[in-house]
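Blinded run. Sample ID left blank on purpose so nobody reads anything into the name before looking at the predicted structure. Input follows.
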Amino acid sequence: MTIKRKRAIAAKPEDHPERYVLKLYVAGATARSLRAIANVKAVCEQYLKDRYELELVDIYRRPDLLRKDQIVAVPALVKMLPVPLRLLVGDLSRTEQVLQGLGIAPAAV
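Blinded prediction complete.
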């Protein structure tokens, strides 16, 4: 009788991609806030599909978080994980800059 053994295959980094935890601060339902929400969701769905968690924070409903998280301008996107923590401010319409800020795309030379 022959026993076949399966060899363990080392996991590749792409087998377990990093999970992104993001927090987007907006000021109500202004045009700029809605644009930032749409832009972030589009980037996340295209580049981080099934690998991200996005929390939306309306500063009018949660003003206490502004001081706690040291937010001085909105819209602001905070990348909590993976480290390092990063803060992006604006309507986030420049996809290449958002990708660089999130550490997804290499910086342009």
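Unblinding after everyone has recorded impressions. Residues 55 and 63 are 15 Å apart (CA to CA).
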